[in-house]
Amino acid sequence: MTSVLHQFVRITLPVALAILISAGIFAASGFDVGNVLSGVLDGAITGPGAFIQTLRWSTPLLLIALGFMITYRTGEFNIGAQGQLMMGGTATVAVALLVPLPPAIVLPLALAAGIAGGALWSTVAGLLKLRFGTDEVISTLMLNFIAALFVQWITTGPLKDDSVRGDSAFTVKVADGLRLSGGTGFSWALLGVAVTAALVAWYLAERSSFGRKSRLVGSNPVAASWQGLKINRLRALTYLFAGAFAGLAGATEVLGPNGRLMTGATPSIGFTAIIVAIVGMASVPGIVVAALFFGALQAAILFLPIVSDLPTSGLHIVEGLIGLLVTARFIAMRQRRKAQTAEES
User: Fold this and answer.
1) 24 burial level (CB within 10 Å; 0-12, 13-18, 19+)
2) For residues 323 and 302, what is the distance between their CA atoms, to the nearest angstrom?
């Protein structure tokens, strides 16, 4: 019980502190904090359709954070989920638009293509790290930019919707028979995908031999090597799994609320999902709760300008502060782990 309480405090403390600091900034800037909080609740929970929007944004955050959790447990810091999401969405839309088969066949193929697209893109970073010693933070970050340029080419070239005018770039819309949800981004099908993904991630992390070996590699690679574990193979698998979850998120965006591949869609959701995973203490139950919280925050960001004069950037301050606090704690924990491993070796 004490351990559970300690973990709860560790999860909620940086979030509560960020909210208090943000409230102080809003008050000092002349905004009505009570009105802002009321608007946040209306936009995230109590307003008409608000909780649907919370679930809409929680779903991709949850999927991506589950993948980050898997790589993090082996000591890898994969920040390439944004690119993996985009490549998953690209593979999905290609199958959805180009495969001339009935929807009952194309839909599972499109989902599988999204998973494969994200997995392969993540595996590139894993191979660079394991074969050449490339820093995974740098490689995954650079791969994000390459993926963004690739999506830009797809949406302005081969699969461009010629009916679109202006600065935006989109592919042709996916057929209605392939959609998992309408524009709201919520359906029982999407909820089923999210729940299934969470159960698969929980099994991989907590019940499988892969999960047990991954934790040992992440906590003490020297001891893992002494026990004969194939560390590089395990780490390569974690990149594969992480990309698969992010690619699935890209697939659900294309087949769900967006209905197509879009240049510049959800530009920061992959990075926010990293904060979700860290706030959730890299555990599936914690990530579910954190995804709901950040999904609610995103829903509130879109709603708040309607009922308050606080600009949307105000709530981004809350996100930024949470990210700052949890990242600082994460870095401290990682340094302690490295020091402990160095002493044991």
Assistant:
1) exposed
2) 20
**What whole-number distance in Å separates Cα of residue 23 and Cα of residue 223?**
46
Number of Cβ within a 10 Å radius of residue 131: 10
Report the alpha-carbon distance of residue 86 to residue 136 in Å, rounded: 18
Domain that holds residue 165: 2-344
Query: What are the tokens at 80?
Result: 């390439």
Distance between CA atoms of 80 and 273, rounded to whole angstroms?
11
Structural domains in the chain (count): 1
30 conformational bin, left if phi > 0, alpha if psi -120 to 50, beta if neither: left
> For 198-237, how does the pLDDT look when each residue is reduced to its tens digit (9 = 90+)?
999 999 999 999 989 988 888 788 788 888 788 888 999 9
**Is residue 56 within 8 Å of 184, Cβ to Cβ?**
yes
One-letter-per-residue 3-state SS of the chain: CHHHHHHHHHHHHHHHHHHHHHHHHHHHCCCCHHHHHHHHHHHHHHCCCHHHHHHHHHHHHHHHHHHHHHHHCCCCCCCCHHHHHHHHHHHHHHHHHHCCCCHHHHHHHHHHHHHHHHHHHHHHHHHHHHHHCCCHHHHHHHHHHHHHHHHHHHHHCCCECCCCCCCCCEECCCCHHHCCCCCCCCCHHHHHHHHHHHHHHHHHHHHCHHHHHHHHHHHCHHHHHHCCCCHHHHHHHHHHHHHHHHHHHHHHHHHCCCCCCECCCCCCHHHHHHHHHHHCCCCHHHHHHHHHHHHHHHHHHHHHHHHCCCCHHHHHHHHHHHHHHHHHHHHHHHHHHHHHHHHHC
Query: Domain with 118 in it: what CATH number?
Result: 1.10.3470
Q: What is the pLDDT of residues 258-267, one digit of tens each?
A: 999 988 776 7
Kindly report which listed range (127-131, 199-203, 227-231, 240-244) carries the lowest average pLDDT score: 227-231
